[in-house]
């Protein structure tokens, strides 16, 4: 029974898939570390706004918005740098580079004497995050089989969410100056493991004309050994030849890219769908609320401890992302995006009404309601709008422009991250939490209608086809 399970092609422990799973686990160590940096901000910002601030003086709302939103600016920078260098130096070198700015974040946190230290640190953390959200999906799409690609790619957000929960817990229960020493274990171990066990993708090596190295990389990620049967080796060799011919047009030279490739019908459709997915991802306020979760609960009318509520939500995030890894390659992307966008719109609407009436009535007996609604909102957001974002970004564009178009899309997404992280606390302060939530709900509902009418299923799509 167990043997038959392992022999299924979509089983991650299938012999053919094991090195792909290993590579995914290793490169996602930096995702966990990045998530810690994101989650740590929520309880820490509340401490920084008090008279007991680790910086010596409490932060104002404008300073809080800049500490929060600097991550978005850094993410844009990370996207651009990754897009520029990934084709030149390869995925492995880019993966190694991402450990550097994240390490600098915690050095700055430890030695911070003013808010500028934290702003620069968050900017550097954003560079790592921007690299993660571009390099990881592209790299995994190039080394993984179609029947497990969605599962492996969605593990990126699962890992980030695990880190966010750890960040909530560490930020709540550990002293400010202890946390950097604990977290630095992550990027240091990540750097060593990637250096030892990760190889550049066969697609990148083919584009560079390194056909022998590309074949070795292909056999490594498909876990094909010399001792395997001749049938398995022949099958893998044929797959590699098909990849090589597709990428080189039979002449062993990389296929050249020209301007008109960016304006084909398939490309334009990809741009339109990517735009709506990015809008839904950011204007649903899912990521903004993760960063300002403690402040959101403090304004919601709930009497529960904001930091405790944040830890509960962090646990639900992990559950949602885990469910996505299980069902993404089973039910497909479209149904998850529809359930996610509809559910988030409804939850934001209900949460807005609760916080509105909490301003007029005593809701002490209903203090559990904001946590319950937000738990459902975060769960539904993570099964589709969050976890499927990077899967769809890679799958919707034609082969020739896939890497560059994905890079541009992620840059735009990161720009919206900066915008949302900057304006969200300002909107809560000037409009009030209910109006802010209702605005996000309306945008998300509009995106649901668009997905229902125009989003096409990409489950099982080969990365060698448009």
Automatic annotation (TrEMBL):
It comes from Drosophila virilis (Fruit fly). The keyword Transmembrane applies. Residues 23-459 form the Major facilitator superfamily (MFS) profile domain. Keywords: Cell membrane, Membrane, Sugar transport, Transmembrane, Transmembrane helix, Transport. GO terms for cellular component: plasma membrane. Gene3D superfamilies: MFS general substrate transporter like domains (1.20.1250.20). It is found in: Cell membrane. It is a multi-pass membrane protein. This is Major facilitator superfamily (MFS) profile domain-containing protein. GO terms for molecular function: sugar transmembrane transporter activity. The chain crosses the membrane at residues 21-41, 64-86, 93-113, 119-140, 152-170, 176-198, 270-290, 310-328, 335-359, 371-393, 405-424, 436-455.
